[in-house]
Design a protein that fits this description.
With 86 residues, this protein is α+β, with helices and mostly antiparallel strands. The longest helix has 9 residues. It has four helices and four strands.
Amino acid sequence: MAEIHWSIQIPARVFLLGPSHHHYTPNCALSSATFYETPLGDLLVDLEVIEQLKATQKFEKMDIGVDEAEHSMEMHLPYLAKVFER
């Protein structure tokens, strides 16, 4: 299994999507965070892509407090930090 993990090509960008358990919205929301802190290091948010998505006017801005309260993606973040450290 580890050999499969290490043979995977690392993507340049990952879009992590999750539900909102604390704030109802009928739309997709973009994080206000500039990075996500994990036990394995910080993951930077691609702010250029965030700005491009905002420009479409199809997304709403997620309040940082809502983002911090959401737990749906927190188990994925350390794995991504490990993958991108290679």
